[in-house]
Amino acid sequence: MDEDDVVRYLLKREEQIMERLCAFLRIPSVSTDPAFAEGMRKAQSFLLVWLESMGLRDVQLLDGSGHPAVYGAWEGAPGKPTILIYGHYDVMPPDPVEAWVSPAFEPTIRSGRLYARGASDVKGSTAIALETIEGFLKVRGACPVNIKVFLEGEEESGSASLRTIVDRFRPLLQADAMISADGGRASADIPTINVGCRGLVELEVSVKTAAKDLHSGRYGGAVRNAAHEMARIIATLHDERGAIAVPDLVAAVPELTSDAREQTARFPFDDGEFVREVGGLAHGEPGYSVREQLTLRPALDINGMWSGYIGTGSKTIIPNVAHAKLSLRTVPEQSIEHAVAALKAHLQSVTPQGVDLTIDDPGTGAEAFSLPSGHPLVICARKVLREATGKDPVLVRLGASVPITVIFEELLDVQTLMFGFNLPDEDVHAPNEFFHVASLAQGLSAWPRLLTALGEFDSGSFRQDERLQG
Amino acid sequence: MDEDDVVRYLLKREEQIMERLCAFLRIPSVSTDPAFAEGMRKAQSFLLVWLESMGLRDVQLLDGSGHPAVYGAWEGAPGKPTILIYGHYDVMPPDPVEAWVSPAFEPTIRSGRLYARGASDVKGSTAIALETIEGFLKVRGACPVNIKVFLEGEEESGSASLRTIVDRFRPLLQADAMISADGGRASADIPTINVGCRGLVELEVSVKTAAKDLHSGRYGGAVRNAAHEMARIIATLHDERGAIAVPDLVAAVPELTSDAREQTARFPFDDGEFVREVGGLAHGEPGYSVREQLTLRPALDINGMWSGYIGTGSKTIIPNVAHAKLSLRTVPEQSIEHAVAALKAHLQSVTPQGVDLTIDDPGTGAEAFSLPSGHPLVICARKVLREATGKDPVLVRLGASVPITVIFEELLDVQTLMFGFNLPDEDVHAPNEFFHVASLAQGLSAWPRLLTALGEFDSGSFRQDERLQG
């Protein structure tokens, strides 16, 4: 049996596949904002019906007291490895909505790009995975490996209940390895395999300087202003070159190995072009290339800050509170627990007397992750990509974070291959997010081949190889 | 004729007067936000009907292409001075609405306080002025002076079209002096006369660091973050003690005269209590008392700042823009034009290459103002307050700004006495704004006596005395 029958079947159906993807994208499944609860429920129904109709068993919602995950399995290949297929059906909020050329939840194709919130992150690649499984079952009545589909509903809101779900449904989720539709390609031209990602932890910081907002005429000049205090605190987080200036945090970041630097340098990358493309100038920790800054070094960013009157017109108040949402991207061998403790101690130390500092820590951080290069997942991905492109894939790391990898490794002892087909230019998390239409066919060709290659291993070889590679 | 017949009439009607004030307060006349346009129109109608029904002539809206002013006149006292009566019918936005104990536009009396947006600033005192005029006309069919009522609709949004209106209707508005219902009392116990106020100018500052919001995983560590840049800029505006740190601006502020310091010290004021009352700690320019900081020294405040994602949950973006609303309170002999130029130059100088700085200057600043202490307005106010309280009033200055004073002085050559009855603890511009119910009767007793005292001067003496006092 050759996997090409399935690939041919899928490519012939590309138009219907695009239609179903658009139906998926029309559902406003924003997990971070309770106003979109109805959209979340609609996305769950959409997926339950799809998994059931393609012939998966045990189709159900896995509840962890947040947004549930959608689950379904096909276990008709005894002796073959069992592969968890990960995707997520939730998307980022569409804000700022007025910046979208076509509405965020009305998928629109322009110039070879499918515009919609979630098109790139990650409904497009999730659809490729599901269509692949359906293709095998339709064409052959069987998949080359056992399949357990796990579609998360809280990836964009910090995977708050993921650990609870995986722990609660541990027996159901037993598998040999995981392929994730999240964590896309680094380049459209150069084949790459993601072998790791940065960690992520988020905090919300608030300062309070008075019991209430005060009139700036009546109090201006004699009381603290919460916006000033927040600005002074934020200004201490980086030096003027853009390097993180939280000493205890920085001290615990390991120096780069020469191997890591060499691997990173193999990926062709134009530092100047990268920053010019987004309309910026080079900025960040000196002594590191942009790729190193993005994938091998930590990043600390204010994701949002607000204080006082931000409506139309003016309101001459002295704000009594100010807030900032903060995220820290960590690297391997950097402990999130230590980094957060260092960050909190720094924030306390720079907050003057008379200012109340509150740090809201949801405790949902995910450590950075690394996949050993000799793991069957990497071997198979290498084979598939080499055959498809004629080039030896470059092993790359992601700057973004896929918290699921750590949770699944820890609770189920499975390693994850990120095999999403999204690309870096697709304005993920921003207005006018899109998915390159050409990526759909590329994904529908590669996924069947990957599952076929994995089917040539037996279940036992996964853990053995992993141990060998440490 | 004694003014006590009018005072008696007004105090007997206090209940009806409170009812009419509540009707006025129920109208959401927020001038800064276009969403309240209907409330602005309702407030205009309410006032037009009131002025017409009490017997004023020439009742009309004075248009300057923004929110119009409401006007009406009584000119039945030939040879007597003509007094402009100033108030404003617009109010601040009610935000944050959730912080109000009773809704902002449902006036509610609790423990001797009338809670409503605008109760203190300045519908309460405006109502006192109008009820006084109506009282004279009802009881005697005449006022002791000629009256021109001018009720502004844009005081809370920087008086954008006030200059245009006053200039356009200059002949109609000719007067000898002005009494303002805005600019309240400094204390409930100690009689005071406001003889000046700080100036006010507002700017909106924006920075842009990239063409769009960027994913913090894909870009974090290698690009500028607009929130960081705004924080660094704001942090340069003050030193750690709270003193303004814009050298060219500070250098142009005149040193305090010993006379100014003595006058300020006459007003009993507990510095520690003042900051404790608002839940803060002492903060601000060293070497000055709190009263001096508030009334004789400039203040620079961020009134609002915002950047990135500020909704529920999280969104891991690197914001590409950040905004801040900024206000500067100036003191006499400090030129706004110079201060704004110094501030702009400073902002430019601290903005690094790679960051686009935009400063939106609506050009609606108002200089600080001073009323000469020998002016008939001060003489009359002193007499009325001494008789009412048995104490010699203290001459005080306001920390807040009443831009109208400068505009009327410049265009109509009239001086302004601020004779509002609001008090400093009334949470102006904040949630749960209120007006002390007891102030209503105090105002209704004082205003008729003030108009009677002014009626003892003739028209010519205003300008003469002014010249004598310089």
TrEMBL record, chains A, B:
User: What molecular functions are annotated in GO for this chain?
Assistant: metal ion binding; peptidase activity
Q: Name one GO biological process term.
A: proteolysis
Q: Tell me which stretches of the chain form a coiled coil.
A: none
Quote the Pfam families the UniProt record gives.
Answer: M20_dimer, Peptidase_M20
Listed NCBIfam families? PRK07907.1 (NF005914), PRK09104.1 (NF006579)
Q: Where is the Peptidase M20 dimerisation domain?
A: 198-354
Q: Which InterPro entries match?
A: Cyt/Met_Dipeptidase (IPR051458), Peptidase_M20 (IPR002933), Peptidase_M20_dimer (IPR011650)
> What is the recorded name of this protein?
Acetylornithine deacetylase/succinyl-diaminopimelate desuccinylase-like protein
The reply to whether Cell membrane figures as a keyword in the UniProt entry is no
The record's section on Gene3D superfamilies has: 3.30.70.360, Zn peptidases
SUPFAM superfamilies (UniProt xref): Zn-dependent exopeptidases
* Keywords recorded for this protein, A-Z: Hydrolase, Metal-binding, Protease
